[in-house]
């Protein structure tokens, strides 16, 4: 079990350097022998700009992909698995887009494909779902899966900042990209929600789920929710019941005294419900060099110890958004269809699916692009 | 890997029945073939009142101990391990009292000794600490490890109940025993704290740690803390630094907007801090037939899959309570030594260790047995 395993890193940015550091300091039976980098950044004797050179190196048993983006990551991962190399990745975008293909390639070539770092950074989320599923069906999951948007909402609420100021601060701290769309429009959470649904429900999850972000939220919106004892957070959610499943990404109003409302700064919290184990919640750093590097190294160590996961996409579940039907509010100068007044300039729409809610919001946005929507608890 | 494994249950109470049900429904490669029960309760053909009969049965490879209490559990576990049988237990009292002995017996006889269910019920706490420690040192842990006392504090705060009324309700719901001392005096949390420290710090943790419960807390105490933005919960805590460690069990005042303050009803939350992974928190049902049964069955499945944990008590750490030094308040008609007034009838004592705090409280209790003490954040 404690043989020496040679691995290669694709990418040596924040996450790649974290992996390199942790392995050098803490994992005696694994060594990073090759690193793929851009031609003008080959600062280390292990570095090469040629993926084919790494692929042809038979001493490399495992490839860690931490470049991000869809291409060339997709091509490289598929080639590595086809060449009989294990793959560990933190790249949620490419996994969400091609999960079933990668899992099948891994299966066919007798290697492991592991993705712990793609959702929840250092939180042992994927492994925990897999463990729960040895015994239990997972009936639902939900969570704050994006630290950037949690940081923004947390600053807005605690310090009374406007959205743009909070976003600017997140960018200064390196929590948000210069183009923050993937975070604030919910795309990052959508990728993590798709991946979680695949693992939790054994299904090749739909890619066109309803996705709404927090770009239009205002300080006044948060104050209004607070006056109802509520706080808004951006959630990814999924539910599975009677051969059907639903997934959605949207702002959700939750009680101020809930764990989710208390999640500070750029932390994540993810929850699942298992049949016998009941509800479980996991909290930690969802991003960053060392937490994400830690999750990757945990996967690498599992491969080195001969453990592997088999992702199964065989369940023939029907996608049915009505499983997540509930009440919504839309703050807008424009009155949406089927709405009743909830507060001045805020409309409540009862018992609609997340897909219907998203359609309503898009229609309102045609006339009022500042409109903000959130799912609310039934009793409010 | 998927051979059929025969196991025996010692005890068929709440937890034992949960294990029996979960294995029958969800674990095809394991079967419960023997159950130890009292002579007047042998209602099932698998049952026997003779432990020696089970011990002598060579087809039984693993024994699940869920009787509770120190004896005869201690004798039975030691005998089972010595006979080359794996042991899985949910019994925190016997593990806290004899952990090093059991671990050594398991090691010597080449079998597994697993204890996931002893701390945090269905929460994968022990396994998560072990996983984190593959890479990271654990520098501290803390948590709400007792659902009964969390339920009492939560009721008192949310519904304004007196301690006795809240305790009575916990007893009606089956959360508290008729003699609630082990819960409300912190003994249960002390056992879980000792076990956690052993696993997290690789040390044979001291047994005479300072332990203070919540027996004397009043509704007015909680109101007073709330007016300072604080909520009190019963915590088990440990810290490890520079070759030293400390552990304590006591009421701790925490910010109202923290995750710990938001833990509802009889749920648990446990936290650790790892060097690279940062803080991680785990939330779930800390007790109950199915959650605890689930944790036991997870351990059984790990043994069936050939996985085993090795608990190491070899670290030569110095026990140093000053690592947990901080500020305390004592509410009492009697003024403690070295105290300043914090509020009418409430005294603040700065920068003392949990051991000193406990001594002060015991001295105050000699004249005022209603006194209540809590650790408070430095800035209050």
From the structure above, extract its key features.
homodimer; 380 residues; alpha/beta; Dihydrodipicolinate Reductase, domain 2; 3 domains; 6-stranded parallel β-sheet; 6-stranded mixed β-sheet; 26% strand
Give the SSE map.
2 copies of one chain form a homodimer.
Chain A: E1 5-10, H1 14-26, E2 30-36, E3 47-48, H2 51-56, E4 60-65, H3 73-82, E5 86-89, H4 92-109, E6 113-114, H5 125-133, E7 138-144, H6 147-159, H7 163-172, H8 181-184, H9 187-201, H10 219-227, E8 230-241, E9 244-255, H11 259-262, E10 267-274, E11 278-285, H12 289-304, E12 318-319, E13 326-331, E14 340-343, E15 346-352, H13 354-367, E16 372-376
Parallel strand pairs in A: 1-2, 1-4, 2-3, 4-5, 5-6, 9-12
Antiparallel strand pairs in A: 7-8, 7-10, 8-9, 10-11, 13-15, 13-16, 14-15
Helix pairs in contact in A: 1-12, 3-4, 4-9, 6-7
In words, what does this structure look like?
Two copies of one chain form a homodimer. With 380 residues, chain A is an alpha/beta fold. Chain A folds into three domains: 133 residues, Rossmann fold, CATH 3.40.50.720; 160 residues, Dihydrodipicolinate Reductase, domain 2, CATH 3.30.360.10; 56 residues, no CATH class. Chain A is 37% helix and 26% strand. A six-stranded parallel beta sheet of chain A has the order 3-2-1-4-5-6, with helices on both faces. In chain A, strands 11-10-7-8-9-12 form a six-stranded mixed beta sheet. In chain A, helix 3 links the parallel strand 4 and strand 5. In chain A, helix 1 packs across helix 12 and helix 4 packs parallel to helix 9. The longest helix of chain A has 18 residues. The N and C termini of chain A lie far apart (56 Å). The mean pLDDT of chain A is 96. The interface between A and B is large, with 41 and 41 residues.
């Amino acid at each position: 079990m404690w043989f020496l395993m040679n691995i290669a890193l694709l990418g040596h940015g924040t996450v790649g350097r974290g992996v390199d550091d942790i392995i050098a300091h803490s994992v005696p039976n694994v060594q990073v022998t090759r690193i793929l980098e851009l031609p003008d950044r080959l600062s280390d004797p292990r570095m090469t700009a040629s993926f084919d050179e790494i692929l042809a190196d038979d001493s490399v048993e495992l490839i860690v992909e931490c470049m991000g983006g869809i291409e060339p990551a997709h091509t490289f991962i598929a080639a590595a698995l086809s060449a009989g190399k294990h793959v560990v990745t933190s790249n949620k975008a490419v996994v969400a887009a091609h999960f079933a293909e990668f899992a099948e390639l891994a299966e066919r070539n007798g290697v492991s494909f592991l993705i712990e770092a793609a959702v929840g950074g250092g939180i042992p989320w994927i492994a925990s779902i897999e463990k729960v599923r040895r015994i239990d069906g997972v009936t639902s999951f939900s969570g704050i899966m994006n630290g950037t948007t949690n940081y923004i909402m947390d600053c807005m609420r605690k310090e009374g900042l406007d959205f743009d100021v909070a976003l600017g601060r997140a960018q200064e701290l390196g929590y948000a990209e210069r183009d923050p769309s993937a975070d604030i429009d919910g795309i990052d959470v959508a990728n993590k929600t798709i991946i979680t649904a695949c693992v939790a429900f054994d299904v090749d999850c739909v890619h066109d789920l309803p996705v709404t972000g927090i770009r239009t939220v205002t300080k006044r919106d948060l104050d209004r929710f607070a006056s109802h004892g509520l706080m808004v957070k951006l959630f990814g959610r999924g539910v599975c019941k009677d051969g059907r499943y639903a997934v959605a990404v949207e702002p959700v109003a939750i009680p101020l005294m809930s764990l989710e409302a208390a999640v500070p700064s750029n932390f994540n919290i993810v929850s699942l419900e298992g049949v016998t184990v009941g509800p479980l919640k996991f909290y930690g750093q969802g991003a960053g060099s060392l937490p994400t590097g830690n999750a990757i190294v945990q996967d690498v160590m599992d491969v080195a110890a001969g453990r592997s996961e088999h992702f199964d996409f065989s369940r023939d579940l029907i996608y049915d958004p009505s499983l997540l039907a509930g009440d919504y509010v839309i703050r807008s100068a424009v009155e949406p269809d089927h709405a009743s007044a909830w507060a001045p300039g805020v409309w409540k729409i009862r018992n609609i699916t997340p897909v219907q809610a998203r359609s309503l919001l898009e229609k309102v946005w045609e006339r009022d692009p500042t409109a903000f929507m959130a799912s609310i608890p039934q009793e409010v």
